[in-house]
Specification:
single chain; 7 strands; 9 helices; Rossmann fold; five-stranded parallel beta sheet; binds magnesium ion; about 280 residues; two-stranded antiparallel ribbon; alpha/beta; about 10% strand
Length: about 280
């Protein structure tokens, strides 16, 4: 059954709690980026990927999700656990010796399509997968989540050209546009703006959305493909560290791990947000 906007918004809070919980237990993780993309993953897995389930993951007709920003795997792990791909308790082994739950996605974990995390690889793999769907005359769609900080990798632009050339209207790339990367603001490290003009000139159809607005995210994905015969790009405007006030837009939390006091503060903030959303009048 379709979830309501309220149910999805509440789920995002639980996901944020779990991201912090398992990063702390592991003593490592990409905290800020996982918090910036979690609302996108929530909507994709609970609203868009109706045919991606633990018991049909071998189906050739399933939609494909390839997380190019693989370092934010903690966000993907908590969503896959919630969707029943593996017991949530598996995440207690995150980053432990011999665990498959490591700091990047690997196909050894049920529900993960591709090993990713080397920056600039997810879009090329997704283009190939979308071409395969066309050649096989399959209706499945391919989604990939890119970090804004990985866009300067040249492989993205070769892939962007190819996606338009092959008229891949079964492909949707999403940019988690939190404006920061590991060493600083994108605008200082390597400016990528204006992203929309660049992709449009490469032949893509582009939409911009608040990447934390559940309702807006649902609406934009429901309108895919944005134009016939063109690949779709969603520029999701997000905040690194979203949901934890002292982490928001703060580079320290790119892969910072909270101490006990910071963790308590974070959970108190999430509890307040849970209370606020519960009392809010939803339309
Ligand atoms: Mg970024």
């Amino acid at each position: 059954m379709m979830m309501t906007d309220r149910e999805l918004a509440l789920k995002s809070i639980i996901y944020r709690r779990n991201i912090l919980k398992y990063i702390i237990a592991a003593g490592a993780g990409h905290t800020g980026g996982s918090l910036s993309c979690i609302d996108i993953l929530n909507v994709l897995y609970n609203d868009v990927f109706y045919n991606v389930k633990p018991d049909n993951f071998n189906s050739p007709d399933r939609d494909r999700y390839i997380q190019s920003k693989g370092h934010c795997v903690e966000a993907l792990f908590v969503v896959l656990a919630d969707r029943g791909f593996f017991p949530e308790s598996d995440l207690e082994t995150l980053c432990r010796y011999q665990s498959h739950y490591i700091g990047h996605p690997t196909k050894k974990v049920h529900g993960i399509e591709q090993n990713t995390g080397a920056l600039g690889h997810g879009l090329p793999i997704s283009v190939g997968t979308a071409i395969a769907a066309k050649l096989d005359k399959k209706d499945y769609r391919v989604f990939t989540l890119l970090g804004d900080g990985e866009l300067p990798e040249g492989s993205n632009w070769e892939a962007a050209l190819s996606a338009a050339h092959y008229k891949l209207d079964n492909l949707c790339a999403i940019i988690d546009n939190n404006k920061l990367q590991i060493t600083g603001p994108n605008i200082e490290v390597c400016n990528i703006d204006p992203i929309s003009n660049k992709f449009e000139s490469f032949g893509w159809s582009v939409r911009e959305v608040d990447g934390h607005d559940i309702k807006a995210l649902r609406k934009v994905f429901a309108s895919m493909p944005f134009e016939k015969d063109k690949p779709s790009l969603v520029i999701a405007h997000t905040t690194k560290g979203k949901g934890i006030d002292y982490m928001e837009n703060n580079l320290k939390w790119h892969h910072g791990v909270p101490n006990v006091e910071e963790y308590k503060n974070a959970i108190a903030g999430l509890d307040m947000e849970m209370q606020r959303l519960t009392e809010l009048q939803w339309q």
